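question for whoever is on the cluster today: can someone run the full assembly for these? two chains, 340 residues total. i dont have access anymore since they changed the login thing
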Amino acid sequence: MIVAERKPIDEIIEFMRDCKKILLVGCNECVTVCYAGGKKEVEILASALKMAFMKEGKELEVEEVTLERQCDHEYLEEIRKIIDEYDAVVSLACGVGVQFMAEKYFRTPVFPGVNTLFMGVTEERGVWAERCQGCGKCILGETAGICPVSRCAKRLLNGPCGGSTKGKCEINKELDCAWQLIIDRLKELGMLEDYEKLIPIKDWSTERAGGPRKVVREDLKQ
Amino acid sequence: MRLTYPDSIRIIRLPCTGKVDVILMMEAFRKGADGVYVVGCLEGECHYLTGNLRAKKKVEYTKKLLDEIGVGGERLEMYNIAASDGPRFAEVAKEMHEKIKALGPSPIRGALQNKEAA
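^ ran it for u. tokens below:
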């Protein structure tokens, strides 16, 4: 999932300093799972914003809605009829949803309510960690299902660096060395000979280095 | 026991403090409460095992939110009192009443009163 966390309320208030009526839009997908921008977080933020304005002797009207997704036309269309009633929209979706909303509703200011962080997993309740950087050319098949691109600080492709100590990374003693994890798992799988295979220089043009990316499926496209 | 506690306190009954959600505490303040305190069973004695421990974390989170918006996290507290301990319940009620009285009205209540007067 895409992991995000709520922006500081001060920052959100600053966006809407001159607004009187806003639409607070949550998203039912990833940001709901990581407790950053689902229905509950929309309710809490609405309550907090109203109080912050009241405290200043001002009034802010906040309408709440949580869409199934904000990265698809069909769900974003659900607010077309009401969008013109608001001075601005605060979207609690990831950066993708915020942008799609802004593209679709060109005349309405759209502000982000969360900081979008990474693609990751729920390691345990309340703990999320990065697992994928969307490099565009997956090498998990060669690395025992553990990604050195997202989990090694240096994104090394052929074994650990000299900073790996007792299975931990030199940048943070709490952080597992991705290559230690890979070696441990290869051993467990009886595939340690795979560690000797050199991974060729990675083609980073499929990552962000090649500019914004796009996938077109002609069989599905209308 | 015929114990008394300040009449400023309004009790909202819940099956377990595990039911207390952030939004419930926030809305209490938005509707003009000067202070809120959550009273749960003693730690380790929750009928639902961890309800009061979860409440404790939610109270801590809400305190930070209240600080962020300038209402003041010190207006929200959590206490753990045994269901049979009436005297302690009354004592805590007085303690919270005095604390909030010293802090004065919440800035939100002031805003609500100004709005009504206008």
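summary bc i know u wont read the tokens: The mean pLDDT of chain A is 96. Chain A touches chain B at residues 8-10, 40, 43-44, 47-48, 50-52, 54-55, 57, 59 (CB under 8 Å).
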